[in-house]
Structure formats: structure tokens, C-alpha cells
Amino acid sequence: MFNKVNVLDIVKNHLGTLIDDSTGNPRPLDFVLFFIFPLSIATALTFYFKVKIDGNLAGLLATVLSIVTGLLFNLLVLIFDISGRNKEVFKKKERVSNFLEQIYINISFSILIAILAVILVILRSFNIWPAIGADILSFGVYFLVSLFLLTLLMVLKRIDTLLLEDFKEYKKPIN
Question: Residue 154: which domain range?
């Protein structure tokens, strides 16, 4: 019954993209960047700077995350369309195929994180939580938004690398 909404594979696949391409092994610094760093940001904002999520911030976060999530869904469809049309090219260019697959996985993970963050923002905006519950929800929002932004930067970097490699190939002289 819950198989249709089980998102653990999305998380597992995303974690599988945090590897060193040359060795195929996980890179500990990636886990520090993508999990310890957002935890540090969330801790600082929640408990040190005591940044509260008020109605304005909740509305802004929910709006921005919703809009970006919609755009990311469109990007998933675009990548799916590109990969479907160019199967022969991707058979010859395994690196391009792997990169597109990783980008697809990372975008799916970004969408998942944004959805979770919006849910926490909505829960936090109800203001029915005691102070500790509100802080925990705020912490979750800050962690997820930080993770979301870092993952988007990784997607941007991967798309940039992929396109620059392609552009370099087009600039080669034709014999």
C-alpha cells in the first residue's frame, strides 16, 4: 500500500551520487558538505541567532519552494525527454548518460526536500506548538532549506559541466 509513496529509493539514489567519479567510492567531504554543514546552519539559526519563522517568512519560504519545485518538475520532464530521444548518443557517451542520470536523481531529491520543507513550514506556521516544538520545526525547516540550496548548486554545477563539455566538442574543427 505504501509502496506508491515510499521515497526511500530517492534518498538512497541521491546518496549514491555523492561519490568520487574517478574511484566510485563515497567522498566523506561530500557528506560533511551536504549534511553536517546544513545541520550547523540550522543549529546556528535556531538556537544561536534564534531566528523565528513568523508568518512573513513562512509565506515567503512556502512560495519560493513551491515555485522552484514546479520548475524542477519541468526540468525532470525535460531530462526524461532528452534522454529518450538520444539513446544512441548516450550509448556512445557513457559519461553523459551517467551525468544526466545523476542530475535526474539529484533533482528528484531536491523536489522531495522542498516538499518536506513546505510541510514543515506549514506546520510551523500554525503556531500551536510549544516553544520546544516550534524550535524543532524551525530547525527542520532551516536544515531542509540549506540542504535544498546545496543540492540545487550541485545540480547547477553538474549541468554546467555537462554543457561545457558538449560545447567544447562542438568547437572542435571538422575534418
Answer: 32-163
Integer Cα distance of 34 and 55 in angstroms: 28
**Is residue 9, in this structure, part of any structural domain at all?**
no
Instruction: Count other C-beta atoms under 10 Å from residue 147's C-beta.
Output: 23
Beta-strand ranges (E) seen in 14-105 are none
What whole-number distance in Å separates Cα of residue 67 and Cα of residue 175?
A: 46
Structural domain includes residue 172: no
Residue 3 lies in a domain: no
Average pLDDT along the chain: 90
- Give the total number of structural domains in the chain: 1
Indicate whether 68 pLDDT > 80: yes
Residue 101: the pLDDT is 92
Question: Strand pairing partners for 161?
Answer: none
